[in-house]
Every structure is written in C-alpha cells, then in structure tokens.
Design a protein that fits this description.
single chain, alpha/beta, seven-stranded mixed sheet, 24 strands
Length: 647
C-alpha cells in the first residue's frame, strides 16, 4: 500500500511504433524500471497500425516513433504521421547513423529525438516527461491564444523553416491539419504570403507593427493586428517571429463608437441649427403679428382689414410649420415628456373649438363637438399633448374639406375604478385618402393633394399626432375612401381627477386700464421694441416703458431708476438676458434684485424653462406672443413687486 502522504503519479498513455519486438520490449522494461514515470504502453509494429489506433480516437500523451518501419522509411514516416495528426507529441527514435535525421525531425514538428543504444531508462523517462509537460504547456498556450484570438509564427528562410500556431490557421479560416511549409509561404497565392513583406521590413527596422484587413479562406473579412520581429543568426541568415491577433470585434466596436459619436454630433448640430432657425424666424414674426394686431385696432376699412387678415393667416401657417418641425425634432431626440396633471376635458374641447371655428366658418363648414354623456370632466393627463393631437387632426380635416362638415366625437369605451377609456374620432366630408396611402400618411413629409390643387404644410401634422398618441400608450388609425371623407380615431386611458385637484382659480385682472406702473423692456430688435411698446401702451394708458438694447444698458438703468417689472430678451449683444438676470439677482441691491423678470424668448423649447429659472427668471413669454398672454403674465407677476408708482 502506498504511504498516506504519497502523491499518486499520473498515468500516461504512450504509443510505441517499433517493428523490432525485442527493442520494443526493452523500451517497455526501461520505462517500468525508471520509477519516475507511470506509463501504459501500446505497441504497434507498423505505421499503419499506429495510425489506425489514432484514427479510432485513442488518446496518447506521447508517441515514440521509429523512422524505419516495414511500411514506411526515413523522414517520410514522420511526415505522413504529422500530416494527419499535426498536434501529436512525437519523440523520434533513430539509429546511430541517422542522428541528423533526428535534428531534421525536430525542426519539422517532433518534440525531441533519441538515438537507439545511446540512452538508458532515466534518459528515456526524462525525455518523455519533459516532452509531455512541454506539450501540455503548448496546449494551454494554444487555448489561451484561441480565447484571445492571438496566434504566433516563426520563420527562418535560410533554413527553410516555417511554423505557425493553430490559432494562426484559425484566424485565416484554414485547416491546421496540413501546415504550410516555407516553400509554400513563398507562393503568391499562399494566404500567409504577406508575412514575407513584414519580414523584409523587420530586417531593416527590427520590428514592424501593422493593422490590416484580410480575407479568410471562407471569404469572410477580418481585421488583424500583426507584429513581426527579426534577428540575425550566427550562420549571414535571420529568424523572424511574430504575433497575429484578430481584432475584428474591437475594430467594429471602434467604428460603431465613431458612428455613434458622429450621429450624436450630427443630432446636436441639427438641434442647434433648428433652434437657431426657429429663433431667427420667430423674432421677425413677432414683429409681423404684433404690427398686424396694432393695425387691426386702428379702425381699418374692409379692404385693409382683408389685407391684415391675410398677413395674420399667412404668419400663422408659417408659425405652424416651424412648430411642427421643432415638435418632430424634440420627439426624435427623445425630449418628449408626458405629464400627468389634472385638466377639464370640457375646457380642452371648448378651447379647441374656439381656436378652429373661424377657419371652419371661412369655408362654410359645419364644425361640431359631440362628447358622449357620462364622461368624467376632470381627468389626469397631459392636456397640452392631447390638444396638439386633436388640433392636428381637426386642422387637417378642415384643410382637406371644402364643403360639408367636420365632426369631433368623444365616447366612453370602458370605465374601471378611477380610470376611463376614451375614444376620440375626427370625421370629415373632405377629399378622402386613397387606400394605398393610408399606410404612409403617418410618415414624416408625406403629403396629400390633388393635381389641380396644392395644400399648404410639410406633412408633419399626422406623424406628430401618431407619436403623441403612442407616447400615451394608444394607437391611432385612419379609414377613408377618395371623395367620401376621412375618419381618424384613437383611444386613451385616463385617470379620473379628484375634485379640487385643479387648485384655486386664476386671479382676475389686477391691473385696470388706468393702472400706473413702470416697465423695463430689454430688447435689441427695433421692430419688436416698437410692437411691445405700442401693445402695452394701448392696454394700460398710464404705463411708463423704459428701453434698453442689451443687458449692460439694463443694469445701468436699474441702478438709478426703480421699475415694477422687467421684460427681458434672451439673445442680445454685449450681455445676454441670462447673465443679466443672474447679475440682477445676485449682485444688485435688494430693492432691485427682487423685481419680477419675464423672459421674452424666440426659443420654442419649453424644456428650457428650468434653465431660465436657474438664472433668476420668474417666467417666460414665447415669441411671437399673443397680446392677451403677455397681459396675463404681467398681471400675474407685477403684484410681487413694490406698490405701483404714481409718478
């Protein structure tokens, strides 16, 4: 029995291919008597018998191969075996006169060689042990290389020696059962031929690094990183060795990151461009609509009133296009946010009717709202987004209907505890939609029309409506036939609001027409200065308006002149509105730093509201503004300031 602490020696299976029975017996006895190696010997008399053992799947840690056999002689014996089994751990047995053959065998893939009659049991055991350990290390190295997609090669052209690891063949999509020779490497059609160019460069530079695309044997393209080093041998020859790594996935990841960075940069530039265009268009439109408002109050005759109406209508169409572009940009950039706030459905529908009834009346259309009985009036949701959807659908219906009706129906589909499922339907008697276009009308920039007529717009209303409905978790659908009108419908779930959730009612006007107060208008655009001043003076006869064309002028004026409220443009020369508001809040005297500041901005992105507040703005008014909106904001915030001045 073995000692308790004695380590069990591993059992190694060894294949001995030897035609001389007596020598085979001698080798077996040597291994048994060495005591340092625990071996199980399988003896075959011919190369064919040995190959049959291997072909049947028998596993051997080492193979002892006599190069002179009945069915194979000399170096051809080794070559035939390695051709079929390139990863064998081979130890060649040679005669005393064939020592050079053993050296050549090692260069061709054998692990080692032994000269018959020149070794004892210890040398045999040691050679086997080292070869097995070396082969195990090589296998682990191959496994590591496989995992890391790294292969290595060695080449000595002067000695006609070339050897590449299994992973090199794998990287190139080639079988490793038939390794390339140095002579094959010289052929132009050899996949490894490009290594010769690297070796030539390594002769001069000592080391060459290169990343390149290759085409594998199976036609697939892979991106590899190659390092080749060269050193001279004692014999005017050179030995080259190198590493090849498949870095296709890394390259693809880099390309994806580059594409992602480019896409993000493009999106940012596009967003900045759209914001800039919006600002540059909204600023003059504020002046146009403001002037039209002032002209309408100047008692124009019927002809002049028609001109004013055309100006206002054309400006509103242009403003609608700008809003659609900005809305679609916000949706595509993931900036759409659905709020859950209490709102009155009846007020929302009435506002929709009040805004669009004039357009319907101009065309002589019967425009009606038909909400069903039993629908709770107070709901929780995003009233602004719901209004946008209905406005786009009804606006489209009016646009494409020249006679007949436009009808909005609201129905209660289902009611649960605290929830309602509502259906909204917009029907018209307009031109209708061809069946083949029903699937594309919700795509951006798709437009309906007739040969004899072109309709205004750029085809974003329905895509925006679809995105907003989907953001609420609903689906929008269309039914239509040419000449028979169209029907658009969608359904959404809403939580039922709690009474009192709307909060206190908005305060009534706190500034009568005779109110006297001071207002500082900080605006660099001359026409907008004139429009704002005229509109405000017609609302409040005793208002005092002071003008500043940039933030620096505003700060200097405030140092010597108390005012009750400030209207501040954002984009101005010298000092912009944000930094001016911040300066007023943080660095001016208390009686000045508390003055309400309303931003007047042409930037339509309402998500910037929190940024405005961070800089000290109380609220904002979007250009082009409706006069009533401006009046309400002033009335809301002027009560926060000092008592009105009587000067």
């Amino acid at each position: 029995m073995p000692e308790p602490n004695a380590k069990l020696k591993p059992l190694y299976n060894v294949l001995l291919i030897e035609d001389d029975p007596s020598y085979a017996r001698l080798a077996t006895i040597m291994l048994e008597e060495s005591g340092s190696l625990n071996c199980s010997i399988t003896h075959c008399h011919t190369l064919a018998e040995g190959m049959q053992q291997l072909l049947q799947g028998a596993h051997f840690e080492a193979v002892l191969l006599d190069l002179t056999l009945p069915d194979s002689q000399g170096f051809d014996t080794l070559s035939r075996l390695l051709t079929h089994f390139p990863n064998l751990n081979l130890i060649v047995l040679t005669g005393l006169d064939d020592k050079n053959l053993g050296v050549q065998a090692v260069k061709s893939g054998a692990q080692d060689f032994l000269v018959k009659g020149a070794f004892d049991e210890n040398q045999l055991a040691k050679t086997l042990h080292y070869s097995i350990e070396r082969n195990n290390i090589l296998k682990r190295l191959e496994e590591i290389q496989r995992i890391a997609h790294i292969g290595h090669w060695e080449c000595s052209p002067s000695e006609h020696y070339f050897q590449a690891s299994e992973e090199v063949y794998h990287i190139f999509g080639l079988p490793s059962l038939h390794p390339f020779t140095c002579e094959e490497l010289l052929q132009p059609d050899c996949p490894f031929n490009f290594l010769l160019g690297l070796q030539d460069q390594a002769c001069v530079a000592g080391k060459v690094e290169k990343d390149t695309w290759i085409r594998r044997g199976d036609g697939e393209q892979r991106y590899i990183s190659v390092v080749c080093s060269g050193r001279k041998l004692d014999s005017g020859g050179a030995l080259f060795n190198g590493i090849i790594q498949d870095i296709t996935e890394r390259k693809q990841a880099q390309e994806l990151k580059k594409a992602k960075d480019m896409a993000e940069h493009t999106a940012k530039v596009r967003e900045q461009f759209i914001a800039s265009v919006s600002h540059e268009m909204r600023t003059p439109m504020n002046a146009i609509l403001g002037m039209a408002h002032l002209l309408r109050q100047a008692n124009p005759d019927d002809e002049q009133l028609g001109y004013i109406h055309t100006i206002q209508q054309s400006s509103e169409i242009l403003l609608g296009i700008i809003n659609d572009i900005l809305q679609m940009s916000a949706i595509q950039n993931g900036l759409l946010h659905i709020e859950q706030k209490p709102f009155q459905l009846s007020s929302l529908l009435q506002n929709l009717f009040d805004v669009l009834k004039y357009k319907a009346k101009e065309k002589g259309l019967d425009f009606t709202l038909q909400p069903a009985q039993g629908i709770p009036d107070l709901l929780m949701g995003d009233a602004l987004r719901l209004s946008q959807v209905l406005y786009n659908l009804v606006g489209n219906a009016i646009k494409f209907t020249d006679s007949g009706y436009v009808q909005v129906n609201v129905a209660l589909l289902e009611g649960q505890a605290g929830k309602v499922h509502l259906s909204f339907t917009v029907k018209d008697s307009g031109i209708g939609i061809p069946e083949e276009q029903l699937d594309v009308i919700f795509e951006p920039f798709s437009r309906l029309g007739q040969k004899e007529r072109i309709y205004e717009g750029i085809g974003l209303g329905l895509p925006i409506a679809r995105k907003l409905v989907e953001a609420h978790g609903g689906i929008i659908a269309a039914r239509s036939r040419p000449g028979e009108g169209a029907e658009f419908s969608f359904s959404l779930w809403f939580d039922v609001g709690v009474p009192g959730a709307m909060g206190p009612a908005a305060p009534a006007d706190t500034l009568p027409p005779e109110a006297s107060f001071r207002l500082l208008l900080v605006e660099d655009h001359k026409m907008n200065q004139l429009v704002a001043r005229k509109i405000l003076e017609r609302k409040w006869k005793n208002i005092e308006i002071f003008l500043a064309e940039n933030g620096e002028q505003a700060i200097k004026l405030l140092e010597g002149l108390p005012v009750d409220i400030i209207l501040m443009d954002i984009q101005m020369p010298v000092r912009d509105g944000l930094s001016t508001a911040q300066y007023i809040r943080q660095r001016m005297a208390a009686e000045i730093s508390g003055i309400p500041i309303l931003a007047m901005t042409a930037h339509a992105d309402k998500t910037q509201a929190h940024i405005l507040k961070e800089y000290g703005m109380n609220d904002f008014i979007l250009k082009p503004f409706e006069p009533e909106q401006l009046f309400q904001k002033i009335q809301q915030y002027i009560k926060l300031s000092r008592p009105a001045s009587n000067s």
